[in-house]
Request: fold
Amino acid sequence: MEKTVFEQTGGKYEQQGDCRLPCLTLPAEEEQPIGIWGQRHRRYLKEHHRILYYNLLTACKLSEYLADIDRQAEELFSRLVKQMAEREGVTEALKAQDQMAWVGRMNNIRNRATEIVNNELIYS
Reply:
């Protein structure tokens, strides 16, 4: 029997009943830890940008891409929280003086920073 183009390029077939099916596998993708920002972006891509999601998935670049987005988002979030807290005078002195006011103001800052990160990186 003459070899097919698939077999000539190194592909193999396996017998399944009366049919010979090609053994198709993707190369192993390096697993990278993906945080909450990367998980949110993956869900967004899967629901709203399926072509990009599946292109990254089949090219074995999805984990790397999501880990990079997660890293960028975390850096942006930390920088924003720090800058907003400095600009609004939310300091350790306020924390020692009035804890509830400090917690309320920090929660407000964190929520605003989350919205900015979501708009800039995650859902765009």
Residues 32-122 form one domain.
